[in-house]
């Protein structure tokens, strides 16, 4: 969304946030947060009518005609004309979502191949039992990996999972001592709790489960339920190794409570997971940036996004 | 174990730790850690014979005749005569264990009354389903609450649980807004994972499950299994509230990962749990101390144990 | 203050903050922070006259007629008519202040009973000497316990003190080893320095003493002055125990400087004090909240305020 | 105490610590910590007799004949002959104490001159009132500034105070904006609470007051008592400034509780106090060290003590 | 810049920041950050023309006629007339910059005298070789010591250096054991890397070098280059001591990585450097403040700036 | 070194540490730390003669005949006969050193191939210029990567470097956006400062340079010297990128001072470096361990070294 000040924009958007206010001259206006494949932009509609207040709700698909302005250093869209998307526009929500870099179908094919390469019958069956459920599979392959910062787009979690599988496959050649089956299963299942912790792939928010239990323990609970369903002993050694990697991947080394990584596979996963998250976060802001230096909210500092 | 230097001791003990060494004069000796109801003491047996090396193993019940000495500020027993306990001694392991301050049977009766006072059928049934299992009930009513520091004695966990129930019952009169059933269930089940995380009540050690999963998440897993068995929905609102209290009770406020306490019941339990642990730790060292000031390994400072 | 957008309000308020600005159209306006028993609200008066600028000062009692609007997600009052309170309104500052949940007179009666139950003559006399002074007593029974977050209302400190006395009375039955007189005296005097650290109960601010010495050490100084006046030795063992509880209650365990809690009473007070502060903070935001989840500035996270 | 292995020592010492043990060959021995002006050394007396156990107590003055050995990298004295000091030895405790680098009488004279240079009558009178008391003056001019690490010798606190006065006098020429009287008073009184927190100048230990209140708040209490005695208002602006500097000098910037430095004088004192403490600590280990690098327990790292 | 609300200002300024926006009434305006010797002020120019947008760029020298208003508690200038500075104004950039308290030429003379007093030929030659380079000397004597907070004005770094030399000269009389030549060289060269890390003295920003290497290591690199040029061995003992002081002055004691101060000179410099930075920061806000208490962004708290 | 208690050992060792002491029976003995390819063991030689004290010095190669004992849980060798290695033994220091898992010559060949694959002439020439120097090359290919914990054996640094090159080569296929030449150069040069910071490959200790400058900045200095020698501009963009990766790899995200990683290559290197260090540390203790759980001094916790 690298538009210049004063440039005109005529485009389709999803409404992500919406708020009515009264301007200093007494008239009402609406503040909006809009998004499409080009990114996110804040917008203002001045002198709003009662009707507009009615149909301009969160998650609406709209067509906008407006001008780019700047307010406190941030790009903003002053809307001049706006209407809901109609059938003739032939626009679907999917067309407006930012997607993973690789088509979701290809990612899903790759993931299925990685699953088949798990030699342990126990772990392969555990993965399949969980992904066989439609509500899990559909969510796992559409939600972002995080609400913002990294892989924060449609099917971002799936892309993250498949990338981790590739990273693992490459590094298992350098470190052949590691247990491939445990690592691959962890790559695939480590964030499965997010299918219960996030509301939906388009405008994701935390569920009450996500707030009160957290996606890490939700993942452990889902793996336990999956194991019970698949007839795997709750004390199975391989499943234990998988759960340990997931639990310890989110724990800082200096914490007394919680579980620190205590196996080679847990240490391995901890580092490749952080590596992929941070590189993706950096590439995400790099794509948006026009300049050499861009402030990153995740790293909490300016990053050098000059990629020449 | 407040013996003076040079005093003679003739008493029964359990062997908790044992190690063979060679003295600077070339002869062999055994270092032991012994315990009975009076506490724990380190001991040395000089010029040990091959036979003694054989039967003086970990967990043995022995009768000792020795003298109190001091080494680097610590009381130590120089053993002069030692033999295994025989039938005539009429000594059982139970006689040598330090116990909770209240008889275990009384504690168990009190706990059963608190369970009956849970009004929610869901939660009462959850608790009963879990405690109905013999391996859980027997361990929950015999293991210490921690390996050292607080409630570190036979049935220490049971005493901790019952004290928390009393504390809650008293304070629910001051804070009637709190959900009694959730709090009572949390008091009873919050450390149930320790029945899987600790090996045994006499010389407790961490199991592999305890090291790799941790007793907090083990508690959550056992509650999930119990709920499934009791036919309770895995999304039940009350069970969710219980699990949240347990998960958040072990998490420091400043931690990014994990789950912070977000309900009034979780905040309540967090504080009374710490209160009971710390008071018990202080009373434990106070009981052993002869002096005004005693160093506490839990608080990592000298505490004022003058109780006049 | 759960008004909807567009709703009209006609009510009495205290002016807590006031600031004149120039609008983007060049005309002057006043930004106000107003409060009454329903809570706090920000307000704007557009096209303000010189006269209005004159009498609309901090601490004024006013009657307002205005409309609720929203600005950046926050409720705001656009004032249409405003005037000073007159005699006919029969409104006093007291009517506009948010109060403790229990009438201040009842709290004061309860406190006096708790004082009489202190068996130690030394400590009872210390408490009475301090509360006998009118400037201390009046402030102690009217100021909030904190400027915001918890017990932040008229007589909030008194309510906090009396609740702590109740909590202690209940728990002394569970932990009879604790020194009742020391604990009760600490409950009553622990925040007495706030009578010097805060300016007044209505719009409290820190005094220079409060900023440079802090209310904890101010409490210690006042207790020392009270002891001297009551003819108590400055080395009295019970007064020492009281001062230790107060000093250590505000110190994190990991701090090198300052004094960590080293007695059972200090540990006890530390936890019940935090417990009451945090529960009150949570109930305060719960009262204002309409929704399941409310952001708490004290906990720095969203809290679950669904109380069904 | 830079003796080589195998060297013989015949000298006088104070007994600082003493402990009886039983050797691996069954005979009794005594472990001692001895000190004289050359430093501190650990010693062992083998095959000790009952009589020796009797008169070899803590604080005894003794004459020793022994050999230097090394045990786990630390110099140690194997005692071959030992007896109590007799009148003929003409040895007093004073002759065995390590002293400040400058004679105590000279330091006291310098301090008196600095006191006379305080222009504010209030502050000069406050200082004089406190130092006029014999028990304060005697202790202030003999105790070490700390039990170990820095100025840990007879009259170490006095030397620290006088050095701080010199440092302040020099730097007030560079920063003339600072309030000389406040700074000089702080230099003199900032550690006055240590006269109540430490037991004695020879083998200093913490008093119960020192442990439960801490020397910082004890200083504040003594200044308050001194001010009351000198007829100074408890709200005096200069005394407030002095107390603020003392309170904030021991508080880390990141602490929420306690009081951070908020005046120029407090910031000034905070830095020169740390500077003098750390330089003295480094010079202390430098004096003992024979080698380029010496481990410092205060800095918790090896320091470069090569002073060429 | 202690103007009251409504006061009129007619004065010269530098434009430091500039941003175009669209007002709620649809017209364009410019937000500016202006500065001159009296400080920094935010300004707004309403209903801006295309021409004005063209010549009102960053770093422009302008003459402004406007009124002081307040917005969200901050002083702001509503511009009524503005034009570029012309030859007749006889205003140069130098006239608008805030300067060190002592004329830059005098500071430079003082610095040259301090350099001549370095007895070590190695260190004196090292300093001279570096300052002989015009691009280093000019920048070192004009840039601020920091972008904000302390010595944040024209020639602020030079003033900081010269003050540190004075502080050192004064304190070397109290601590004669310290190596004068090392300390003086460190005072002069410790921030020399800032000549590469900051873009320019007027509107300083970080260079890419400054962001990626940091001014500390840039200082070390420049000293190495200077030493090579001056024919000094890269292992010279004095240069090593200087580099150690610089490297360790920016490292917190608790950091594992990096280098902690390990010499007396490093500890000395660490403290006087912090002392001068913090006092200067406090004097800077004190100069601007009209009130007793002023919030300091560096200390992250309100500071007492009452200097009576 | 998995010998059982009482087992006899006849083998060759290097003396790493040596200390003379006096036993409790008055006779002298020597404590030694010995090592050979099987690991490290502490040893005691009782009743030592003057001659033995003479030739049994640090770094001596010796032949030992002794018995395995245990002292405080640690294996220890009670020496019964010992002599220096003679020509007939045909033993060289090399035969006693623990080596990297791959022959040093093979590692060196692999490293040379990775160097040739650097496409940037600037970076390839920089690497070659530095490795062309015999004293750098010989040390880089023989020293351990750390004194203990990870790659702590002969040529451990070389093995670490080559493994990082392999890891990078594998992952550049997954993340092709990264700059290969910068990453490979960082892998090779990131620890080059250790050739100046460590004394020697056999019994490595920190040099004064290593203590006062640290190996990170020593690496930067050596790269600067290498660049000057190779005629590369000191502002070269690629060299800057390399130096940034090295500087930021040792800095924790939360540090204010120092430089945080700000490029994708720096983030990449930070994670793979930690990954390889931690996996190697875990494999090192795993090789020594006989049991499921082994305490790791690096991770400061027990690790699960069961590799089945």
UniProtKB/TrEMBL annotation, chains A, B, C, D, E, F:
Domain HD: 158-277
Gene3D superfamilies cross-referenced by the UniProt entry: Hypothetical protein af1432
Positions in coiled-coil regions: none
Keyword Hydrolase: yes
InterPro entries linked to this entry: HD/PDEase_dom, HD_domain, YhaM_exoribonuc/phosphodiest
Superkingdom of origin: Bacteria
Keywords for the protein's UniProt record, in alphabetical order: Hydrolase
Pfam families from the UniProt entry: HD (PF01966)
Protein name, as recorded: 3'-5' exoribonuclease YhaM family protein
Phylogenetic classification of the source organism: Bacteria, Bacillati, Bacillota, Bacilli, Bacillales
């Amino acid at each position: 969304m690298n538009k210049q000040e004063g440039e005109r924009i005529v485009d389709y958007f999803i409404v992500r946030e919406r708020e009515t206010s009264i301007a200093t001259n007494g008239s009402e206006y609406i503040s909006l947060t809009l998004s499409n494949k080009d990114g996110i932009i804040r917008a203002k509609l001045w002198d709003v009518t009662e009707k507009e207040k009615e149909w301009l709700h969160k998650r609406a698909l709209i067509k906008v005609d407006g001008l780019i302005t700047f307010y406190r250093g941030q790009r903003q869209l002053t809307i001049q004309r706006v209407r809901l998307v109609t059938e003739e526009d032939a626009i679907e929500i999917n067309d407006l979502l930012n997607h993973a870099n690789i088509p979701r179908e290809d990612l899903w094919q790759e993931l299925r191949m990685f699953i088949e390469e798990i030699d342990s019958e126990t772990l392969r069956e555990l993965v399949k039992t969980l992904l066989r459920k439609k509500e899990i599979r559909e969510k796992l392959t559409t939600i972002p990996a995080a609400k913002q910062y990294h892989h924060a787009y449609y099917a971002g979690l799936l892309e993250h999972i498949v990338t981790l599988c590739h990273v693992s496959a490459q590094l298992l050649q350098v470190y052949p001592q590691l247990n491939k089956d445990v690592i691959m299963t962890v790559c695939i299942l480590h964030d499965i709790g997010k299918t219960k912790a996030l509301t939906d792939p388009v405008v994701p928010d935390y569920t009450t489960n996500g707030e009160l239990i957290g996606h890490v323990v939700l993942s452990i609970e889902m793996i336990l339920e999956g194991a019970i369903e698949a007839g795997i002993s709750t004390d199975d050694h391989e499943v234990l190794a998988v759960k340990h990697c997931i639990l310890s991947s989110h724990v800082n080394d200096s914490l007394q409570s919680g579980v620190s990584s205590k196996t080679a596979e847990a240490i391995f996963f901890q580092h490749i997971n952080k590596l992929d998250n941070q590189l993706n976060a950096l590439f995400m802001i790099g794509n948006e940036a026009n300049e050499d230096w861009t402030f990153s909210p995740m790293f909490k500092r300016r990053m050098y996004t000059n990629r020449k």
